[in-house]
């Protein structure tokens, strides 16, 4: 029995020593600093004081960022849906998918009764003009020989003016289809040409196919050397975005690549459902990396200005705000709420709460909580 009591005492002694040491350590830390309101007083020459590191705040240039999602869209003036101007049958195709073409390149040929009727209108208008010119000349000769009347001359002149107008209209109608009417042969097929330079990104042209003039486009030509990036920016952030501002894009397809661009246009109306504003940016796409419909994350970069930068290790998080400790006297620190603009490269960008020239606790502030 006596041996059991001795064994129990031997086992309890280390535990008692451990608890006693912990209590002494806690008492030591408690006396190492005192908190009065937002001010912390640290006793000098103790272990806690050696764990605290101080540094001066830094002033560096920073561009305020607004981050949102966006999609890649073609520029309308560089994107063309190709549809037949008349109902008819395709007799020849000149293109293939992915082909690079220039403006006015032939795409396909079509035979159309409607186009033939347009040709007839032109030839009839040209014939009527020639007859009206001859009639006017004849009336002038009669007047010159004293056997014609002024009224007949005026009627011939009026008829010629009408014929000239009809000819001009029929001539212009054919020019729309990039045809030289003077070299046209009645009944020839219509060659449909590309209105822009670019790439064939869709080709549904089938030789022998009969298509109607109201059918869906059968080809798409797009110049994607530049593209639009469409983004919706929240109403509260639109004040930070201006036409000409720089943007940076991050895409899941190219995680290590940053693509640059510029804000091109800011819509005048707010989407009432989302309380956001449409912003168009333009990006170079010479390498054809950006595909229509791709999603991306856009960083709108406001004009750079000077901001206070502090180490992230200085930043502490309270229940309601972020804060740091600023030195107001030797071993005396003030709990100072701050507004954080961004966290970047191990530093916190401070927009409010700190002044230039302040000295802060850059490491060890969490010991003072």
From TrEMBL:
One GO CC term, this protein: membrane
Domain CusB-like beta-barrel per the UniProt entry, residue ranges: 226-300
Pfam families for this protein: Beta-barrel_RND_2 (PF25954), BSH_CzcB (PF25973)
InterPro entries: Beta-barrel_RND_2 (IPR058792), BSH_CzcB-like (IPR058647), MFP_Cation_Efflux (IPR051909), RND_pump_MFP (IPR006143)
UniProt KW keywords: Transport
Transmembrane parts of this sequence: none
Keyword Metal-binding: no
Record bears the keyword Signal: no
Molecular functions per Gene Ontology: transmembrane transporter activity
Coiled-coil positions: none
NCBIfam families: RND_mfp (TIGR01730)
UniProt record similarity statement: Belongs to the membrane fusion protein (MFP) (TC 8.A.1) family.
PANTHER family to which the protein is assigned, alphabetical: CATION EFFLUX SYSTEM (CZCB-LIKE) (PTHR30097:SF16), CATION EFFLUX SYSTEM PROTEIN CUSB (PTHR30097)
Protein name: Membrane fusion protein, cobalt-zinc-cadmium efflux system
Organism listed in the record: Dysgonomonas macrotermitis
